[in-house]
From TrEMBL:
Gene3D superfamilies: FAD/NAD(P)-binding domain. InterPro entries: Amino_oxidase, FAD/NAD-bd_sf, Zeta_carotene_desat/Oxidored. One of its GO terms (molecular function) is oxidoreductase activity. This is Protoporphyrinogen oxidase. It comes from the Bacteria. Residues 12-270 form the Amine oxidase domain. It holds the Pfam family Amino_oxidase.
């Protein structure tokens, strides 16, 4: 099968790369290994209710994403997420507010540094310990950053996490999702006359002859002159080893971590927990609990819990749900869990990315993902946009 362009990986990076290429009139094939599109965007649906096992929120500061939604006439599909707060789960089982855990004298003493201290060249731990106080960082904020990035985030470059995007598209709610969760976003973007998706597709081998790339899969041979890799860095590294050894070596240097995300749907009357956006533990085996309370429902409530150990047993998942959310297994209407992988970035990452970009120059091969600008959906879309522009120049 011959396509103008092939995109390997059907997460948000691959989908948006395919979208930008398709908008230029190219016929694009997305080859996705699993049986569904979305990757870390993973909505779990039961009847008319859903919860997110992965990403849950888009913001109106996501400029590249809102542009796609506008071009698809899907602006009105974005639904406002209502306000709710995050709480800290203490070792004694109590839920307390985040501000109540902060030492305000320490905070006030350090906060003025926010005006002079630059994030560049500092880790999350170094930067936020300096502007919020070391004690505050160790006790509360390190847990908060762990919850945001779904990993121990102390070594992350400070300028790559929690970016402030000043520009907002006021046509969209400040933070939003969709009627059927972020799965709608996947449908909206993948629904394009120039895009064909091939699920459950295993790449068996990849070769290049002249200007033509040939991808042998479990079902077909795909041929193209423009190829995009939108898989996690370790997978990209393996896939391109024979055609681009230098790029393979560079992408292999990017660290990653895995987590286990479990979700439950429960009848409202079977949960006693107050309305919450989520829970950050003081010291536990999980990074965070994310609720669906921001999109309330008459009948159900939903909770996702992100565990540090990707190999955690089902019994331990259920025991933690009982301990933290107070819901017994017999009251689960639905229960599901999955493994996610995220890049673990550290100082010096920018130089690595510059090396990858230099190696890509002048080639019809593009690499996108959540390890170029940052982890967020918007970071992925921006990279996909820039790479699609480059390979179609
Ligand atoms: C729990 C969690 C919560 C998050 N919350 C938010 C949030 O609220 N807002 C936000 O902006 N961001 C959030 N993020 C981050 C964001 O969701 C991810 O960084 C982003 O979705 C990654 O997209 P991607 O396409 O780069 O990678 P992935 O989503 O990992 O997609 C890669 C795809 O490649 C496929 N693949 C792998 N190997 C192969 C192969 N050999 N051949 C073909 N295909 C292959 C995978 O199956 C997958 O579909 C969250 C992430 C997680 C895990």
């Amino acid at each position: 099968m011959v396509f103008d362009s092939i995109v390997i990986g059907g997460g948000i990076s691959g989908l948006t790369a395919a979208h930008f290429l398709a908008e230029k009139g190219l016929k694009v094939a997305i080859l996705e290994k699993s049986e569904r599109l979305g990757g870390c965007i993973h909505t779990f649906q039961k009847d008319n209710y859903w919860i997110e096992l992965g990403a849950h929120t888009c913001y109106n500061s996501y400029k590249y994403l809102t542009q796609i939604l506008e071009s698809k006439n899907a602006k009105d599909k974005a639904l406002n997420r209502t306000k709710a707060s995050y709480k800290v789960f203490k070792s004694d089982g109590k839920l307390v507010s985040i501000p109540s855990q902060l030492n305000f004298l320490q905070l006030l003493g350090n906060l003025p540094k926010i005006f002079s201290l630059k994030k560049e060249g500092l880790t999350v731990e170094q930067y936020y310990s300096k502007i919020l106080g070391k004690g505050n960082y160790d006790k509360v904020l390190s847990k908060f950053f762990g919850a945001v990035s779904c990993q121990e985030a102390g070594d992350f470059p400070a300028d790559m996490l929690l970016k402030r995007r000043k520009e907002r598209n006021k046509e969209f709610p400040k933070s939003y999702t969709f009627e059927h969760g972020l799965n709608d976003l996947i449908h909206i973007i993948s629904n394009h006359p120039n895009i064909s998706t091939f699920l459950s597709t295993d790449i068996l081998s990849l070769s290049k002859e002249g200007e033509k790339y040939s991808v042998q899969t479990n079902t077909n041979t795909f041929e193209t002159e423009k190829i995009t890799f939108a898989t996690p860095p370790n997978i990209t590294s393996t896939l391109i080893k024979t055609i681009q050894p230098k790029l393979s070596e560079l992408t292999s240097k990017i660290g990653f971590s895995k987590l286990c995300s479990a979700g439950i749907i429960v009848k409202k009357e079977n949960v006693n927990l107050e309305k919450l956006a989520g829970i950050v533990p003081e010291s536990e085996s999980f990074f965070s609990v994310v609720t669906r309370d921001v999109m309330p429902d008459d009948m159900y409530r939903g909770f996702s819990i992100h565990f540090k150990n990707p190999d955690i047993t089902e019994a331990k998942i259920k025991a933690t749900i009982k301990k933290v959310i107070g819901v017994d297994e017999k009251d689960f209407e639905s229960f599901q869990y999955t493994i996610h992988q995220l890049p673990s970035l550290s100082l010096g990452h920018q130089e690595l990315i510059e090396g990858i970009n230099k190696e890509l120059e002048g080639r019809n091969i593009s690499i996108t993902g959540n390890y170029f600008y940052g982890l967020s959906i918007e970071d992925c879309v921006q990279r996909s946009f820039e790479e699609s522009e480059r390979i179609t120049q």
